Amino acid sequence: MSLKRSANTSSSPGAAKKPKANGSITSFFGAPKPKDGASAPNASAPPPPPTVKFNKEKWVSSLTAEQKELLQLEIDTLDESWLAHLKDEVVSPEFLNLKRFLKKEKESKATIFPPESDIYSWSRHTPLHTVKAVILGQDPYHNFNQAHGLCFSVRPPTKAPPSLKNIYIGIKNDYPSFEAPPDNSGLLTPWAERGVLMLNTCLTVRAHNANSHANRGWERFTQKAIDTVARVRTRGVVFLAWGSPAAKRVAAINKQRHCVLQSVHPSPYSARNGFLTNGHFKKCNEWLSERYGQDALIDWSLNPKKSVFDQKPAVTTTGEDKQEGPLATSKLANKGPLDVAAAMGDDEAAIKVKTATPSVTTADADLLCDEDDLDALEALAAAEDDFSAPKVETVNEEVIVKEVKKN
């Protein structure tokens, strides 16, 4: 897999004045493209601010010989937009110990997934300045031709795993024009390239051994990446946290600045307790549209010939609701279906949960899943050739969609 071009570029050379931080919507996404016959909104707004000044060559020259050896992968493959903010973390004792552990794993001839060149593919597909939304996973899939650095995503010709199939159902409930990819594919790089950061808690795993690299240091590093998004993307992004482990990762996020959407995990073990009808994909777009306008919407389609917007989403944006300030609140932010899902049976919740929007607090974290570690169970299921988890009820997509339409 070829590495994407570094995103550490400067602002337009034609800019006459230094842009003011957070001065407008264009400080987040850049100026929207004008439609035919219409002038671009905010046409007089300044261009996006330049990225953090980072002299990579100078930083590399400051490393010790051992640091250079241990961090060669980060030097070569971690996108500079991220490295500029994580450079202190990668030279910390904890991260260097993680790299020593991984070096020993490699020397022992253990098979590690994803392939080395893909460990940081999330950073190259989604440079820091492009992040609109964040989807959090946990452990990489641990069989051949599966993990490639993006959570929930698998390489073709591998079929979509159970959790991803349920994600597809959730999108179809929000956008009826959505179609699953041909051949039931599970490659999610189009989302990543549209600004959806797809980050696992652990970035590596030993073959056929779920969670084998847990508690070795990746958790601290990826938490720093999450915190970097929350700190740097000052005008706000959407965090989608599915399941208890993901909820804990976003517990400290500023919910006045960012939108945090929480629900049960899409695993077959819990999806019918609220995930399938949580409305997260449309809520994500509603929040982005409310704050930044229609140009910020994420097309969740994986079919290059058909957008989910072929059927227009019901975006509730009005002039007076438009958010201008970097710390503006949103009536659409930080809502979830937890209380209803917990109080009802599975079938009843699947139909009615879409109408409930109670506030989510850290005290609700344990309600977010049926298992302590759903992603680990998913990884175990992923080891099977057919991606089927034993004794797990499968979900009929047509039935769920019909249930939603009735209501």
Automatic annotation (TrEMBL):
Residues 1-13 have a biased composition (Polar residues). HAMAP family: UDG. GO terms for biological process: base-excision repair, AP site formation via deaminated base removal. Belongs to the uracil-DNA glycosylase (UDG) superfamily. UNG family. Residues 1-53 are annotated as: Disordered. Its EC number is 3.2.2.27. It is an enzyme of class 3 (hydrolase). This is Uracil-DNA glycosylase. It comes from Talaromyces amestolkiae. The gene is UNG1. One of its GO terms (molecular function) is uracil DNA N-glycosylase activity. NCBIfam families: PRK05254.1-1 (NF003588), PRK05254.1-2 (NF003589), PRK05254.1-5 (NF003592), ung (TIGR00628). It catalyses: Hydrolyzes single-stranded DNA or mismatched double-stranded DNA and polynucleotides, releasing free uracil. GO terms for cellular component: mitochondrion; nucleus. Excises uracil residues from the DNA which can arise as a result of misincorporation of dUMP residues by DNA polymerase or due to deamination of cytosine. The active site is at 139 (proton acceptor). It comes from the Eukaryota. SUPFAM superfamilies: Uracil-DNA glycosylase-like. Pfam families: UDG. Residues 124-288 form the Uracil-DNA glycosylase-like domain. It is found in: Mitochondrion; Nucleus.
